[in-house]
Amino acid sequence: MNEAQLKQLVAVVRKLAIFRGLVPEELQRLLHICRLERYEAGQQVYRKGGPSDEMLILIQGSLSVLSPVGTELAEIGPGMTIGEMGLFAEQPRSADIVAKQPGMGFEIRKPELDALLKVNREMLIKVQQNVIRMLAERLQETNVKLDRYGDTIERLRNRIEKLVGESEKPGEDG
Fold first, then answer.
1. Which residues contact 41 (CB under 8 A, 6 or more apart)?
2. Residue 74 in contact with residue 96, Cβ under 8 Å?
3. β-strand pairing of 35-39 with 72-76
4. Helix (H) / strand (E) containing 63
5. Cα dihedral 113/42/40/3 (nearest 10)
6. How many helices (H) and strands (E) in the chain?
7. Cβ(44)–Cβ(96) under 8 Å?
8. For the segment 57-100, what is each residue's pLDDT rounded down to a tens digit?
9. Distance of CA 78 to the CA centre of its chain
């Protein structure tokens, strides 16, 4: 990778929430542990339930996040990451990921990332703070959704009770 490509990649990685606040030198150290991976359209990138021992920064192409029945839940585009939460939480993959079109990305494996962060305490603190912030944001988003679902369930319950009550009224048979 030449100097111009490295600077361009640093600019992309700097924008990622998980690496927010890292200075260019720290980002360059991070990029030195990345491996370039290429994907063909239709290729399985990650399998639900598989180990989360790496994360991916997508540089080109697009990936589909699929439900167990194959429904697309989300699309991952260039400049987005996948697998970062599982990497730090040490949880299995939560969905299947398939390449929608040919593409490439930089993969960061857990052992190399752990080794890098172990000797760079400032980086470790920044990344951990970012992970905590991201988890808190996701928890807040989930709580908002749960509140909406609760409100919807309550409205449906009231409608059902009203319909059942109306059907139990005695008819006017005269």
1. 99, 100, 101, 102
2. no
3. unpaired
4. strand 54-66
5. -40
6. 5, 6
7. yes
8. 898 999 999 988 889 988 999 888 888 888 888 889 989 999 99
9. 13
Do 58 and 103 contact (CB within 8 A), yes or no?
A: yes
For the chain, the residue count is 174
β-strands 54-66, 35-39 pairing: unpaired
User: How is 5-38 classified by DSSP, letter by letter?
Assistant: HHHHHHHHHHTSGGGTT--HHHHHHHHHT-EEEE
Q: Which pair of structure tokens corresponds to residue 68?
A: 């167990």
- String of DSSP letters for 42-59: T-EEE-TTS---EEEEEE
Cα 135 off chain centre by: 10
Task: Give the pair of three-digit tokens for residue 63.
Answer: 């990936």
Q: Residue range 20-33: average pLDDT?
A: 90
Q: Provide the 8-state DSSP code for 90.
A: T
For residue 40, which of 18, 65, 62 has the smallest C-alpha distance?
A: 62
pLDDT in tens, 114-128: 999 999 999 999 988
